[in-house]
Amino acid sequence: MKKYKVKELAELAGVSVKTLHHYDKIGLLSPAIRSEKKYRLYGENELYRLQQILFYKELAMPLTEIGEILDNRNFDQLNALMEHKKMIQNEKLRLDELVNTIDKTILQLKGKKMISDKELYRGFNSEEIENIKAESKKKFGEKEFNTSEKYLKSLSKEQFEELKNEQKEIFKNLLKLSTEDNGSETVQLEIARLYQNIRKFWGTHGSPSTQKSEFKGLAKLYVSDSSYTKVDGEIHEGFPDFLEKAMAHFAKTQL
Amino acid sequence: MKKYKVKELAELAGVSVKTLHHYDKIGLLSPAIRSEKKYRLYGENELYRLQQILFYKELAMPLTEIGEILDNRNFDQLNALMEHKKMIQNEKLRLDELVNTIDKTILQLKGKKMISDKELYRGFNSEEIENIKAESKKKFGEKEFNTSEKYLKSLSKEQFEELKNEQKEIFKNLLKLSTEDNGSETVQLEIARLYQNIRKFWGTHGSPSTQKSEFKGLAKLYVSDSSYTKVDGEIHEGFPDFLEKAMAHFAKTQL
DNA sequence: CTTTGACCCTTCCCTTAGGTCATAGACTAT
DNA sequence: ATAGTCTATGACCTAAGGGAAGGGTCAAAG
Questions:
Q1: Strand D: positions under 7 A of a protein C-beta atom
Q2: Residue B160: is its pLDDT beyond 80?
């Protein structure tokens, strides 16, 4: 009877040593004996069993089931295989559905086409372009602006407008809420929305602490120049101040 | 902006609260804000994102990938979907192969038909049957014998003969080795084979300690009646004694 | 005769996508 | 005020191993 140490058997069967350790631990394949120094020693029967294990494993069968099948000799091996076949066929059906769903989604997605590098600012008129650029530079400086511009290219015009609209809506909501406590959950939830909206505009670069101070900086900008906080084109008294306090509270408690 | 606590959002989306905790922890879906008492508060944007997550999850996509896709807005969403589709189609091909393999194996297995209750002892002549039964009863007593008989039914005649032949071979090998130290690895490896062979005959019922003493009992039986340890029909002097010592050593060091 | 490199051992932590307690604090209704 | 529901965190569990730490063993080469 030939004897194999772990690595020998592993290489013979094309599995890792760790796998054999594992099979030993779960009792799926134990060495025939242990040497005096606790080395695992396998015989040819173990090699044969391992080959069977690997066969069933290729059929995507869980190790516990493999163990049951092998230990029951061929009691309901046939049955188990037929059951397993059913399982696999069901899985195949599921995958078919997935492919269908994906195909549909791909079609939808192709409808909303992506914006290319050259098309980034197409669709906005030149005045809008200048506004966007100027705004960005004021807020984040030259260097950050370049990162932002790169990021903006990954947005489609539709998405861009969607974000603009959401920002308008947020400001409207916040105006309505400006009589409330600026730390209330309702207000803070809206501020969170504003925060996320801004991040979608300017990207998520920078460390958390950087983002925190950027956000607070933006709040101060709102106070210093009330044109930023127009709602429906109008300046509202006290609103910039409310906003700044609410944003500061958000930065302090959430960031 | 509506706000949702964990359970509310969970029920709305049909997932568990724990899932939301999990998504928060891995940063896939964080609450918009935390209340003063650290409660997670989600807004409608989060509900929307969760729905997207669930959509991709249904496509069997890992959560990390989902996160990347959603955070890149639609940058290479299209590409990711097409990649994913390829993956699924490959998986389908693999399953096809599995089904083929299983079908082949089932055919092979059907060739070696199982033994039915009534056929258990068919194929052996009556003398053999009596030998088998007597041997079992002597070794394990009436009660154990019934268990064993039930177990034997799960073996086909082919397997049964295979086991008999293996036992003959083991005895032959052991006879050759009987000049060696009974505790050597080579001998012990062969004893291990004998142990496993016996267990395949008589089943694996009983606690480890029971099996240990049964095995030692069998060794003593071999010494007391040398007809059990015939090799090629002949009694060999000193062999039963060698066997008993080797078996006792095995029981002590391995069981 | 010792050292080196290859091998062996066990134990612990890590992975996915959460499930299942356990414990403690918070909210709501009677 | 107390009971019942909700929330939080943390630890442990799943399948099938991967990886590494820390320590013991063996054979050949110096």
A1: 6-9, 15-19, 24-26
A2: no
Domain that holds residue B92: 78-111
Residues from chain B contacting residue A110 (CB–CB below 8 Å): 78
Query: Given this model, what pLDDT does residue B74 score?
Result: 53
Shared-domain flag, residues B165 and B237? yes
Q: Do A185 and B33 touch (CB under 8 A)?
A: yes
Tell me if A106 and B159 make a contact (CB, 8 A cut-off). Answer: no
Strand D CB-contacts below 7 Å: A 16, 18-19, 22, 35-37, 57, 62-64; B 5-8, 17, 21, 38-40
Q: Which residue has the higher pLDDT, A196 or B124?
A: A196
Beta-carbon count within 10 A of B58 CB:
12
B161 and B63 in a common domain: no
pLDDT at residue A148 tops 70: no
Q: Is residue A10 part of a domain?
A: yes
| Confidence at residue B204, expressed as pLDDT on a 0 to 100 scale | 61
Distance from CA of A60 to the nearest CA of B (A): 8
**pLDDT, chain B, mean:** 79
B171 plus B243 within the same structural domain: yes
Looking at the partner chain, which of B1, B41, B189 has a beta carbon nearest the beta carbon of A3? Answer: B189
**Which residue intervals of chain A are DSSP H helices?**
6-13, 17-25, 44-58, 63-71, 77-111, 126-152, 157-176, 185-202, 208-224, 239-254
CATH code at A27?
1.10.1660.10
For chain A, the domain total comes to: 2
Q: Are residues B85 and B22 in the same domain?
A: no
For A113-128, give the DSSP string. PPPPTTTTTTTS-HHH
Say whether B26 sits in a helix, a strand or coil: coil
The 10 Å Cβ neighbour count of residue A132 is 18
> For residues B1 and A188, is the Cβ–Cβ distance under 8 A?
no
A205 pLDDT above the threshold of 80: no
Residues B10 and B58 in one domain: yes
The pLDDT of residue B205 is 61
Quickly state the pLDDT bin for A155 (edges 50, 70, 90). low
Asked if residue B177 is part of any domain, the answer here is yes
